[in-house]
Amino acid sequence: MRPFSEIEIPYFSRMKLKQKGLGLLKITILLLFLMSILGGCALFRPAPQKLFQHARIYEPFDAIIVPGIPLRNGGTWDSIMKARVLWSVYLYNKGITKNIIFSGNAVYSPYIEAQAMSLYAQALGIPKEHIVIEPLALHSTENVYFSYKIAREKGFKSIGLATDPFQAALLYRFTKKRFRTRITPIPILFDTIRTMNSVRPVIDPQPAYVENWKSIIETQSARFRRRGTRGKNIHFEKRRMDAL
User: Fold this and answer.
1) CB within 8 A of 38, min separation 6: which ones?
2) Which residues contact 241 (CB under 8 A, 6 or more apart)?
3) For 180-203, what is the mean pLDDT?
4) What is the pLDDT of residue 41?
5) How far apart are alpha carbons 182 and 180 in whole angstroms?
6) How many CB atoms lie within 10 A of CB 75?
7) Which of 19, 29, 55, 84: CA 20 to 30 A from 71?
8) How far is it, in rounded angstroms, from Cα 137 to Cα 105?
């Protein structure tokens, strides 16, 4: 019997092994790419607690921007929307912000994200007159851009970006590059809002519902959506946006 190393592997079997090897290589490259991104967020950005302490230097903020997240088709929030709303409520109740700008269109579900988050915030005691709804944004970069424009119109001078740490890290360069006015990241401290997790606000989601709604997947190509994620669909001025 010939040693295993000398046994000839049939051509098609060799091709399958080669394809499998290429597939594993692609997966490995993708994992390394993701690790570099996540590692970059963790290694080259301050920890959420440190960013929060830094943000308190500028309090009280005239407004914080809270990017939207889809409301489920049944009209209920998921853990991410809950965390963002609870964090905005915490910041308002602590006097860290005077107003809250909820941002987001009906992107992946037939509910305007900003409106839905506003309803939950009101159910948790935030006065309606201190909530601003931005209903146009389809991507996180647009959440910041359109909310910034509203802040300018309302004369808000200081702005914070209140969201989960990962999204705050992804938007860091965008906010620094495109806006002359400081947009201070205020990442969620999950240990802080954990004591609030037992709240079960009940809302009527109907005011946020959009008739004849179409998903962004139907209205925008994958390439156009990728551009939107990077802020490439926004028609910026030639210079960075003027200070407030």
Assistant:
1) none
2) 148, 178, 179, 180, 181
3) 92
4) 44
5) 6
6) 17
7) 55
8) 5
Q: At what angle do helices 222-229 and 140-154 cross, to 10 degrees?
A: 50
> What digits encode the pLDDT tens for the residues 129-160?
999 999 999 999 999 999 999 999 999 999 99
CA atoms within 13 A on the CB side of 163: 24
Helix/strand/coil for 133: strand
Rounded distance between C-alpha atoms, residue 186 and residue 189, angstroms: 9
Res. 212: pLDDT tops 50: yes
In sequence order, what E strands does the chain have? 63-67, 100-103, 131-134, 159-161, 183-185
CA distance 80 to 51: 20
What is the mean pLDDT of the segment spanning 40-52? Answer: 67
Q: How far is CA 32 from CA 10, 21, 41, 166, 167, in A?
A: 33, 16, 14, 18, 20
Q: What is the pTM of this model?
A: 0.79
CA 106 to chain centre: 14
The C-alpha atoms of residue 83 and residue 91 are separated, in whole angstroms, by: 12
pLDDT above 90 covers what percent of the chain?
63
How many other β-carbons are positioned within 10 Å of the β-carbon of residue 150?
Answer: 17
